[in-house]
């Protein structure tokens, strides 16, 4: 983990927020490479679960919602962590994270456990008198329930169907830890899939299969993944069944995403609190009902962390150590680097022109600094799947070498064919 965190900082994937002020706990910034990686991951999720499916539509709702939403959803009452404080050093801990009954930092005595609501509060309004207290959403899905009727009637969707959303969520986590694994500001990728009560179990099982396949499609190693079924007593207030996909991070197994059966909890709660009917009328069956909800809820940051951990490799090449990030090409921040063999004799200019034509199609990088071997290594370290070398022969016959990151093999190819070759290899189309 230490090596990965150091690479992430050094290469501009992820660094701590507000670093020049000493950082702020639980908040992270995605740098030039990290933003590309996370964006590719979110785009692939959206492509796979929204654009490729006629039974799911998207939503991009506001982060700040009416405070009554959080009363109706049960978050004001129930979104609690049980915490204890150290009487000596005053540090606070989640009770379920403690291994012993004393402070893990100083050995001091702990207070009695108490409930701590982990929603982040904010004030909305232009004067102290008129401002109202509300919250930064702790999960993205509540807007999907609140907007349920508007979405299905405007898009003419019929149950069974789903609404998907990617967006920021905020939780005042007691102990943010393990790099970006547990943060206070993070992104969720959630789907609320609405179905009839009698189909809940079948829909749940189908989602188990679909979710698993997506993680394999983005390149995670199957033996590092497992399902964890929550026992009844640890279920969230809204769920009758929850299973998590877990990934074996270097710090141990951790939750990547949840899959929950929320039944009719949320639509019923919002109907009751708002007085607005959120049922669905099935014209064919001539019946009105409140749909059940199966919820696949993923974390974009946790998936990005799993991709980073899974990609990290150290290899020995001709007596040298190489660090290589073996990202699936469709997620790689940079798809291709163009490297002139030498800077002179018009080779650099030719390489620069070629890089400009490739840049129109995908993210590329041009590098002429240092020995060619070192330039390859730099690209390996940031997971660039293809390095294109422009040399003297290129001037003669318009061909280049294309080096594969993982096998390190080089193939000679006409320049006119390179873009199509890379696009095919980096495509997120599935069979
Ligand atoms: N709407 C259901 C829900 O929010 P959750 O299990 O609390 O369920 C879903 O969160 C996912 O959001 C988690 O599996 C995880 O990937 C991500 N997540 C939750 N809390 C997080 C945190 N503090 N930091 C990073 N990701 C988090």
Q: Total number of β-strand segments?
A: 23
What ranges have pLDDT less than 50 throughout 5 or more consecutive residues?
Answer: none
- Using the CA coordinates, give the radius of gyration: 25 Å
Largest sheet: 7 strands, mixed
The CATH homologous superfamily of the largest domain: Bira Bifunctional Protein, Domain 2
CATH architecture descriptor of the largest domain: 2-Layer Sandwich
* Shape, principal axes of CA atoms: globular
Per DSSP, the total helix count is 13
β-strand percent reads: 25-35%
CATH topology title of the largest domain: BirA Bifunctional Protein, domain 2
Question: What value does the average pLDDT take?
Answer: 96
The number of domains is 2
Distance between the termini: 34 Å
Q: What percentage of residues falls in helices of 4 or more residues? A: 25-40%
Strand order of the largest sheet: 3-9-10-16-13-12-11
CATH level-1 class of the largest domain: Alpha Beta
Structural class: alpha+beta
Bound molecules: glycyl-adenosine-5'-phosphate
């Amino acid at each position: 983990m230490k090596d990965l965190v150091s690479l992430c900082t050094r290469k501009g994937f992820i660094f701590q927020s507000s670093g020049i002020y000493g950082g702020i706990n639980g908040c992270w910034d995605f740098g030039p490479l990290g933003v590309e990686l996370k964006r590719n991951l979110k785009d692939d999720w959206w492509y796979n679960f929204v654009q490729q499916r006629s039974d799911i539509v998207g939503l991009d709702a506001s982060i700040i919602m009416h405070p009554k939403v959080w009363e109706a959803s049960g978050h004001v009452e129930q979104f609690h962590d049980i915490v204890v404080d150290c009487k000596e050093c005053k540090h606070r801990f989640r009770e379920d994270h403690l291994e012993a009954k004393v402070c893990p930092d100083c050995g001091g005595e702990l207070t009695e456990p108490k409930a701590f609501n982990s929603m982040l509060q904010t004030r909305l309004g232009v004067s102290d008198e008129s401002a109202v207290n509300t919250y930064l959403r702790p999960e993205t899905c509540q807007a999907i329930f609140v907007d349920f009727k508007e979405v299905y009637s405007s898009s003419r969707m019929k149950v069974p169907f789903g609404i998907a959303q990617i967006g920021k969520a905020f939780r005042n986590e007691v102990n943010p830890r393990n790099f970006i694994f547990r943060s206070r500001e993070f992104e969720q990728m959630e789907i609320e899939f609405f179905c009839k009560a009698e189909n809940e179990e079948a829909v749940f099982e189908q989602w188990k299969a679909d979710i698993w396949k997506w993680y394999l499609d983005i390149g995670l190693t199957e033996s590092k993944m497992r399902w964890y079924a929550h026992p009844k007593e640890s279920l969230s207030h809204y769920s009758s069944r929850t299973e998590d996909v877990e990934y074996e991070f270097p710090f141990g197994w951790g939750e990547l995403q949840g899959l929950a059966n929320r039944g009719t909890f949320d639509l019923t709660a919002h109907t009751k609190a708002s007085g607005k009917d959120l049922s669905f009328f099935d014209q064919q069956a001539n019946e009105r009902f409140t749909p059940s909800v199966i919820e696949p809820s993923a974390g974009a940051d946790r998936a990005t962390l799993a991709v980073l951990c899974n990609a990290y490799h150290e290899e020995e090449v001709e007596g040298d150590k190489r660090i290589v990030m073996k990202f699936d090409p469709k997620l790689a921040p940079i798809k291709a680097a163009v490297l002139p063999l030498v800077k002179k004799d018009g080779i650099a200019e030719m390489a620069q022109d070629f890089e400009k034509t490739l840049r129109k199609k995908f993210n590329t990088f041009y590098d002429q600094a240092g020995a060619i071997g070192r330039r390859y290594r730099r690209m390996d370290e940031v997971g660039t799947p293809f390095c294109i070398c422009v040399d003297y022969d290129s001037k003669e016959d318009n061909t280049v070498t294309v080096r594969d990151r993982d096998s390190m093999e080089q193939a000679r190819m006409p320049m006119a064919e390179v873009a199509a070759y890379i696009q095919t290899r980096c495509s997120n189309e599935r069979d």
